[in-house]
Protein: Adenosine deaminase domain-containing protein
Amino acid sequence: MNGLEISPFIAALPKVELHIHIEGTLTPALRWKLAHRNNIPLPYETYSELVDSYKVTYNHRRELNGDNGAPTFLETYFAGCQVLCTEDDFYELAMDYFRKAAEMNVRYVEPFFDIQAHTKRGVAAEAVLDGFLRAQRDGAERCDVRSNWIFCFLRDESVESGLEAYRTARPWATTKDGKGKGLFHAVGLASNEYDRPPLLFEEGFRLAKEDGLHVTMHCDVDQKDAVDHVHEAIFQVCAGQGTERIDHGLNAIDRPDLMQGLKERNIGLTLCPHAYHRRQATETLFPKIRKLWDEGVKICINSDDPTYMHNVWIDGNMMKVYEYCRFSEGDMIQLVRNAVEMSWAEDEVKQEILKELEEFAVSS
Ligand SMILES: [Zn+2]
Structure:
């Protein structure tokens, strides 16, 4: 990971992850195993070719400044999804992640999941949802990593297909009528944002709000119309109430009204520094993150799609800002506090992590 070793302080720091796509944690090893188990042909003859295929830098097509025809991140991510077929596969994917999270001292996580990426291949939504539900319980019991999940509308699919996926998944939500199974407590927007602004999904946000769920959305970095999308997310969506969080949203620093809006509406940004560092120079990127922090915008540090982003996980992302933003140990602890505050965890979970952070601050 660009030559940075994870320091003992960063390794030991208790962590909260609010921006990770569960499908973006699929390791080449599990993908290889599931491909063979499910008889899904892989377009790679050897395991090392499969590993090499994860080295992608372009995010999607179309790219704003053109691309060179190389495979993109999104193509690689959805190619990975092909091997996920049965409830056990989704369970195994999530349990692999929870074990990894526990090793990194992650205490609580709000993973994103896709339904449409799987149902359109003929996989039953129940297999996806039941697999994750079982892992949610076992992850908490066996790995001590608590989780509440986030349903994503795939924004480059039709709005109608997203709404249908939401209606299908709804019995697994933490709905305010208390009848849901408690897997997910929020909705978000994922996949290719090119010409797919947040407001297109207003009906989805409305349904989710009515059910008592939270709303977050990706505003990708340097995407076409990036600042307009951030503006919609802060001021226009959810009938003008705005979103509760923004995933990425780094382009807010390009306009003072957006910085002001984030602060006034207390909308935090779930940043994933390595995802941007793949495409921006150290001296360009980290001063921007530092500026958000210095100006009092609430941010926290996350990993996005670690296996497709050079295997840089939340600890590696935290190490990057610790080093390149020149944050102190106290600042790093505050970044985790921010994540706790930005999360929608149950109060007792929040209190427990805050208390642990307090003890950690004294002992470190
Ligand atoms: Zn993301």
User: Anything to note?
Assistant: DSSP finds 16 helices and nine strands in the chain. The mean pLDDT is 95.
